[in-house]
Here is the input.
Amino acid sequence: MDLQRIEAKQKSGQIGIIHLGLGAFHRAHQAVYLERYRQRSGDGEWGVCSANLRSSVGLVDSLRDANYRYQVAEYTDTETLTLREIGVIEETLFSGQDSAGRWGRDREALLVRMTSADTRVVSLTVTEKGYFLSPASGELRVDDPMITGDIASPQQPRTAPGLLVEALARRHEAGIAPFTVLSCDNMPDNGKRTRQAVVQLAEQRDATLAKWIADEVAFPCSMVDRIVPAMTDADFERLAALGVTDPNAVVCETFSQWVVEDNFPMGRPSWEAEGVEMVADVAPFETMKLRMLNGSHSLLAYLGALAGIETVYDGVNHGELRALLRRYMLEEAAPTLEMPEGIDLDAYADSLLARFANDSLRHRLQQIAMDGSQKLPQRWLTGTLERASAGQTSSCVALGMAAWIRYTAGEDLLGNRYAVDDPLAKRFAELHQLHGGDPSALVAAYLAMDDVVPSQLAADKRFAQAVLTAYLTLTHDGLDGALAALERN
Ligand code: NAI
Ligand code: CS2
Here is the structure.
């Protein structure tokens, strides 16, 4: 085992960044860039206060108990590992609902931090659903109970947009310049969409505040990329065998990329020195990654999960599935991209397949399959609509949609049941209950969900027919039958 250990730099204390969404990705991506920056520069102004608004208080408290230090295990392969200790997190807070049903244990402390003039950036990894936007339209879902709750009680916000609006309101009131809001979630135009959510929520409260936010607050976009699977018992056991017994550790690949729109009026760390690409326009990079990497991930997730395949590694080693991913990337995703000179999409596709084949990551397909209603518009559907508008069919995506529809029944093709983790899971269960015996009606009902599927695409008869045909083949002939049928057309 080629093992390199990197210690954290001494803590410095000043918090300049608040992060909402203390998840695995934040700890393995943004925090690693900041730790490397601190190691190199000695600059102590960019310590992080990380908060959880949902999920458990466990990680928040266990990181505090570990003096906010944890290990990132960066695997090149099963034999090559860098163990990097991270110390840039200076504080963790919990603003979610605890096991007794109480909300916002540390909400006020978090808002005080967000209002402090020392705080110059607020970043987020709250998952695509954490913005409460309609996946298809990007509009704030003002009918969502969490949002209606924040509208009714704006000073006790429970959502990420609600916290941002309340903190900005306090800064506006106190004459403190706003922080920059940096989304690090897998959403198209993630900065613009975050701005949409925040301004639309502020409009429900105070038009003057909403205008101030719209005019004065920077919401740069960013493309983020590092495969960081949720930790499994096997991951903790592997680390323990190396003498690392850290309950807050994360495991990830060596690859990491961050492309950020350079729009930080209040200043930012000099991330460039750590390889972060500061650009004027993130969109081409974001679309490339969302459609080629994430679109392939979702294809693999639904087709693989239905066939009882457990991880990305297992899936990409299924010959026909691998061929399908490459075909999707090069024939259906790449042609929709407008890339700067010099980007070789064939090479990018091969690099993605190599990353997926990393045998040291146990990236579960069920994790990728979650929240499909929030992911598929940007991963498959927007590009497929562009192709349909140009008269082109998208057989791989049609098969993917068929697989997703079947997946949301909560039972794979082998009869194994599982929980469908999606904000629309209840709706899916109702549709399968209503139309389960009538594939044509079921597919039509899914395509008619205009908060997920662009209505223009749903109206495309060739696409609708392709999804139905794929659904029938998949459910009658299984994965291999569906892949063989795709091969023939
Ligand atoms: P995770 O499950 O470890 O963390 C999810 C975080 O989102 C938790 O802090 C949770 O409290 C928060 N959250 C969930 N629903 C929320 C809601 N409705 N409101 C507020 N907070 C909410 O997942 P992980 O791996 O950290 O991924 C988080 C996001 O990071 C992804 O959804 C994606 O957008 C982005 N990302 C993840 C990558 C990965 O490989 N894990 C890579 C690239 C981007
Ligand atoms: C994955 C992403 O869970 C998922 O939906 O497709 O988290 C993926 O691992 C990252 O975007 C890779 O950068």
